[in-house]
Amino acid sequence: MYVIGLTGGIAAGKSTVARRLVEHGVTHIDADQLARIVVAPGTPGLQSIRETFGAGMLNSDGSLNRAALGALVFADGAARAQLNDIVHPAVRVLSDALLEAADAADPEAIVVYDVPLLVEAAVGHPFDVVVVAHAPVETRIARMVELRGMSEADAAGRIAAQASDADRLAIADVVIDTDGTLQHTLSQVDALFERVSAASAQSTVGGAP
């Protein structure tokens, strides 16, 4: 199995990169989706959130009030760290299980593990390559305003609450520049797929008895 670690700041085009890889047949594991699963109603994660932050973090039906929790943690670094301590270990357990299942199903599989907070969570998976989707802060703010209806101040705040571009780029083996046209981004992802396909095939041959 060959594992791509994919990360990028908010509105940096990471989802576009992941979708293109999936079109090439790559197996996709989404850390955001796992993070929702571990705080679903009835989970220990949601119970921990209630105990840590109060019942006001829940909707009337007992589900997580994401808007309320988001407003709290993006404005408070200590609260954000508390939330990460609840969510990240549970996500790690799920992602480990999914990676093991992918390997068992096809030892030659290529998997992209899509982790927005790869730097912040200090994800320790043994990635074969780390890919960073990157666009300047100004571009990302414009996308968040136009596509998500956020104010410039809120968009800037969300970006500031994440790892810096420098921290992400420091761990990158490959950088996908998403500041140009969609086709420019996709062509880079296509080249990445060719690269990892060749590397995966070589590692499989090299590891064969």
TrEMBL record:
Known catalytic reactions: 3'-dephospho-CoA + ATP = ADP + CoA + H(+)
Primary location: cytoplasm
Subcellular location per the Swiss-Prot or TrEMBL entry: Cytoplasm
Transmembrane segments: none
Keywords: ATP-binding, Coenzyme A biosynthesis, Cytoplasm, Kinase, Nucleotide-binding, Transferase
One record GO biological process: coenzyme A biosynthetic process
Chain sites annotated for binding ATP: A11, A12, G13, K14, S15, T16
Protein known as: Dephospho-CoA kinase
Originating gene: coaE
